[in-house]
Amino acid sequence: MNVLYNLSIFLYSILIRLTAPFNLKASQIYKGRKQTFARIKDKIKHDRPIVWVHCASLGEFEQGRPVIEAIRKQHQEYQIFLTFFSPSGYEIRKNYDLADYIFYLPADTKKNAKKLIDLVRPEIVFFVKYEYWFHYISELKKRNIPLYLFSAIFRENQLFFRNSLWGKWYRNMLAGFEHFFVQDDKSVELLRQIGITKVTKAGDTRFDRVAEIARNGKTITLVEKFKGNSTLVVAGSTWKPDEELLVQYIHSHPETKFIIAPHETKRSNVERLISMLKSPVICYTEATEESVMNKQVLVVDTIGILSSIYKYADLAYIGGGFGVGIHNTLEAAIFRMPIVFGPNYLKFNEATSMVKLGIAFPVSDYSELQNILNNLLTDAKKREFISNECTVFTNQNIGATLKILNKVFNNSRSPIQ
Q: For the chain, what is the domain count?
């Protein structure tokens, strides 16, 4: 199995190199990895011990961020060494100021694992959610460096729980972790069925992150002026299939205002969205407090403000549910409102929980979208009930970061102020 795994890593690395001239993501990975060891050697200092945090991409970074910031606040004796697998994480967060070092993770070979750990010499290592790299895990275990996985979710159909040769090989990899901090009871049960008992149900650290965002939410006067006294729907991280449904509703309901923040903010995509709209529309970067007031639709063509915009919404629509899966629902839920999204949400624990509680509503077509929006936007009492349920739901799930730090650092001080 080791030979097949090594071959797959080798072939993937060759594929990245061959496609780099033609593919931006491949180019970023290839160039970033190529420079990693030299840059680490040049920058790393060992005047203080190092905690290594690894995230696959931007979504996992948002889960890792509360833990990073809690360590920074409560354990200033440590440096933070942060790595990413994907350019969508690294390129956006490469200047994150609460990490001391930020790099791409070199390909998972035996040689690279030894070299990276020799250079970094981490005292504690955290992988976020679902990262399983055989050589890095093996090398850390060999050196008795504790490795923790947090915000993890395990499902029955994963390789770990199969009795095939690959299943047994992957299952053995889990023995390299010191402890698992998982999101739900099912994950605890599945791990215990295969003999892993160093497990804590801690929850999802993203709840701590969105709670922090809500406490420090920006006031956006432009959005206040845009909303006025109207009912406002904020559609976040939308894709074309989401937008095609939303545009139909916008055209037939001029009394309702919409903010649409597409997942892709490059100009060509924003122009495509604007071309679909017959209603008065303006881009965020072009709007003024005066010009925005007589528009029905505000298109957010910049990044970094969506989480603060949600607080002005009466209802949120979360994109991605007609594709690979919905985006972050918690950023909206923390502001106590009904949430609507497409049908592909079942892999997201928080979404399935909110649907069961009656505070989130999946839709499969325009007819369902229209019925749900009409009902929710015209029923203030229903929205008030959902608001209260959102508060209970989010409050019950805040605190994963504290559980993790208490276990790892034996720290009784709360990292969440």
A: 2
Domain presence at residue 417 = no
Please indicate, yes or no, whether residues 342 and 403 belong to a single structural domain of this protein: no
Residue 213 within a domain: no
| Percent over 90 (pLDDT), the chain | 79
**Which residue shows structure tokens 């504690």?**
124
CB-based contact 196:180 (threshold 8 Å): yes
Asked if residue 333 is part of any domain, the answer here is yes
Residues 264 and 274 in one domain: yes
Q: What is the mean pLDDT of the chain?
A: 93
What average pLDDT score do residues 68-97 get? 93
**pLDDT at residue 358 greater than cutoff 50:** yes
Q: Are residues 258 and 339 in the same domain?
A: yes
Between 231 and 20, where is the model more confident? 231
Residue burial 161-173, b: 16+ Cβ < 10 Å; e: rest: beeeeeeebbbeb
DSSP 79-109: EEEEEESSHHHHHHHTT-TT-SEEEEPPP--
For residues 315 and 247, is the Cβ–Cβ distance under 8 A? Answer: no
The answer, as to whether pTM is greater than 0.70, is yes
Say if residue 234 is in the same domain as residue 100.
Answer: no
Burial environment of residue 268 by CB neighbours within 10 A (0 to 12, 13 to 18, 19 or more): exposed
User: Do 284 and 174 share a structural domain?
Assistant: no
Residue 314's domain spans which residues? 219-397
**What does the alpha-carbon distance between residue 127 and residue 149 come to, in Å, rounded to a whole number?**
5
**Which residues are bridge partners to 260 per DSSP?**
235, 299
Instruction: Specify the long-range contacts of residues 273-282, CB closer than 8 Å, at least 24 apart.
Output: 273/243, 273/299, 274/299, 276/243, 276/244, 276/247, 277/247, 277/250, 277/251, 278/251, 279/250, 279/251, 279/254
Q: Is residue 331 located within the same domain as residue 386? A: yes
Give the model confidence (pLDDT) of 282-326 as tens digits.
999 999 999 999 999 999 999 889 999 999 999 999 999 999 899
**pLDDT confidence of 21, banded at 50, 70, 90?**
confident
Is the same domain home to 47 and 90?
yes
- Placement of tokens 């009912």 in the chain: 231
Contact 316, 307 (CB under 8 A): no
* Residues 70/415, Cβ–Cβ less than 8 Å: yes
In a domain, 415, yes or no: no
Report the amino acid identity of residue 86.
S
